[in-house]
């Protein structure tokens, strides 16, 4: 329960640092998906 509460509070109050981290994570995920798709498409 406390874990869910912590997530809700963090999402309610987004910090610039958190936003930057999220943006970086998203970029990494996109790159990962892209590389995976490319390798899958080749074979």
Task: Provide keyphrases for this structure.
single chain; 43 residues; mainly alpha; 2 helices; 88% helix; elongated
The level of helicity is over 70%
Q: Give me the count of strands.
A: 0
Order of helices and strands: HH
Largest sheet, strands/sense/barrel: none
Strand % is under 5%
The low-confidence runs, each spanning 5 or more residues with pLDDT under 50, are none
Could you explain the architecture of this structure?
The protein is an all-alpha fold and 43 residues long. The mean pLDDT is 78. It is built from two helices and no strands. It has a domain of 28 residues.
Could you give a quick summary of the protein structure above?
The chain is mainly alpha-helical.
Q: How would the blueprint of this fold be written?
A:
Layout: H1 2-12, H2 16-42
